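TL;DR need structure tokens for one chain.
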Amino acid sequence: MDVEPSVGLAVLDGLSGLPHTSELVAEVVAGEDSIAHFLWVPGAVRASVCSTMTGVIPSLRITEAAPSPDEGAMLALRLVIPTPSVLSGDNAVAVLRALLSGMVGLRRGEQLILRWALRPGSARAWQGPENPSEREREIAKKWRHKTGAPGFATSGLVLIRASKMSRARELGSHIESTLCSRH
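>> reply
TL;DR here they are.
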């Protein structure tokens, strides 16, 4: 199913109205021959999340899923978005394709799991420098615009299973460089 980035943003906008105590986990799991997408949702908000998502994406199929694998990982990478950050939305489809392309070349026994924890809420306050440069003023302007709209607090985790640490680092490096290109 092809979904325009604007539709994805509309879903996130709808979900940002959930109670701030609700944490959603978006997960992409890639193996040798597959890529699967999951959104782990607390039972208390399941009906609301399903309604929001199918309201924006009528063709969406929602099914119950077994829990994510809990086997050990060879390498774990923590993903942090520093404050302030204004991520580029330009060419999001190409970046997503680049990220997914790094997940399809996995070998037998390899697995890559990308998780984003999303908690509805406002962005953290940011105090800029007293004498900002032109770039810092532009960042402050974008930050004020960003914090004026509903959003999410996020944190991420990449788990990599591979037979050798060198291969796990290679896969992790691809994910890291693709995500860093958006900042």
